[in-house]
Amino acid sequence: MIRSMSQSEKATGKVTRRLLGTALPNPFTTAEALSFGIPRVTLHRLAKRGEIIPIARGLYERESEPAFDFDLAEIAAKIPVATICLTSALAEHGLSDAIPVKIDIAIPRGAWAPKMKAPVNWHRFELKTFDRGRNTRAIPGTSLAIGIYSAERTLADLARHPKKDQAELAEGIRRWLRRSGNNPAKLLRAAKELPGAEIQIRRILEILT
């Protein structure tokens, strides 16, 4: 049985969409979305939920209400220390083509993880190293920001994660090395700050360089 929304629910939904809306044109291109700071993984999630409609390769259409990333907004609103990590961060940095089914989110070990509608894989990281390589980025169309680990920290975390695909790590390092200003020494410095990361990073660098 389909339940119709109450007037208060409709009003709340309109206010939320207005507050979190973006200034993207309609239709909009992938390049335009990226210029607003909306990563490809977010576009994929929005399209999967039907909030934007792919009408051609690299071109999307939305209804009169602007699209935004409900999942990241919910996570950031409920737990401000939440930080995008591992495969999800790798994708956000453009170092992987993977589209994770769930969003990899790090929180400090011992921190409470609230219930979410958003699809989340929680990862508990050591408190003493939690802030190393941690930055924040705005969630377009909102007043919220969410934490995200740097590309170097992300690669180091993947190197010390026993269940992660090492082929994914190798490809991420390959792409990272192609970017201006990056070199093996820079990545090794980041790896040395996280126990268990340096050996695997060094092995892959020896193969790639």
Number of DSSP-assigned strands = 8
Low-confidence stretches: 1-21
Strand percent estimate: 15-25%
* Gyration radius, rounded: 19 Å
Number of helices: 9
Taking all residues together, what is the mean pLDDT?
A: 84
Can you put this structure into words, describing what you see?
By secondary structure, this protein is an alpha/beta fold. It folds into two domains: 8-61, no CATH class; 70-208, no CATH class. The protein is 42% helix and 16% strand. The protein has nine helices and eight strands. It has helices spanning 7-20, 30-35, 40-48, 70-78, 86-92, 151-159, 166-178, 184-192, 198-208; strands at residues 28-29, 53-56, 59-61, 83-84, 103-108, 120-125, 134-138, 145-149. A five-stranded mixed beta sheet has the order 6-5-4-8-7. Strands 1-3-2 form a three-stranded antiparallel beta sheet. A hairpin with a 2-residue loop joins strand 2 (53-56) and strand 3 (59-61). The longest helix is centred in the N-terminal third of the chain and has 14 residues, at 7-20. The model is unreliable at 1-21 (pLDDT under 50).
Sum this structure up briefly:
With 209 residues, the chain is α/β, with parallel strands linked by helices. It is built from nine helices and eight strands.
Please name the defining characteristics of this protein.
single chain, 209 residues, alpha/beta, 2 domains, 3-stranded antiparallel β-sheet, disordered N terminus
Helices and strands in order, then pairings?
Elements: H1 7-20, E1 28-29, H2 30-35, H3 40-48, E2 53-56, E3 59-61, H4 70-78, E4 83-84, H5 86-92, E5 103-108, E6 120-125, E7 134-138, E8 145-149, H6 151-159, H7 166-178, H8 184-192, H9 198-208
Parallel strand pairs: 4-8, 5-6
Antiparallel strand pairs: 1-3, 2-3, 4-5, 7-8
